[in-house]
Protein: Transposase
Organism: Didymodactylos carnosus
Amino acid sequence: MKVSHTTMRRIIKEDLGLKLRSFGIWGRKNIRKSMTEKILFAEEKYFYIDEIYNKQNDRIYAPTREEADRKGGMHFKTQHPVHVMVWLRSCYQEVTRPVIIEKGTINAARYIEEILPVALKDGKRLLGNDFIFQQDSASLHKDGKTQSWCKQYFPDFWPYGRWPPNSPDLNPLDYCMWSEFGEQINWSRITNKQTLID
């Protein structure tokens, strides 16, 4: 921005009224590069039969709306499309096997029963008995029973109070892997729920 660090700090603190939050301070003091190799990130995503479309990322520049539509600008979506929820975990070594939820909603009890044991097993397989489990701030992740289960069974985990607020860039599944994953799917072959799962 071609301004001094002092000016930037003044703008951030005084003009914008922003403060460095606790995770930033804690992270700067406690997270070392070697620690990042021990984090097991977890994230879920819905996949719909209508393909992936992210209006924030899929943009077409064209002089007219008609030209944009010819280039693929129109995205038609079914009102209530068939979908599945996919859970993945990732660490510096690899992405784990998916857990696919075909039916129903996920509450804390189901998350603890069906998802967390798989995450624990994958974490131990990939990283041994010394790893940190990282979730996002979904309500079922913040649930007291979920937090207690994680504290009891994972070698280490960042509890809800430690998570950075509104920071999807911390999780590589959020900012990179889900879109890469979606691009590898041949969407023309997705005609029903079973082909979506396959």
In short: Residues 53-57 have pLDDT under 50 and may be disordered. The first strand starts at residue 39 and ends at 48. The beta strands are 39-48, 83-90, 99-101, 132-134, 156-157. Residues 169 and 175 are 6 Å apart (CA to CA).
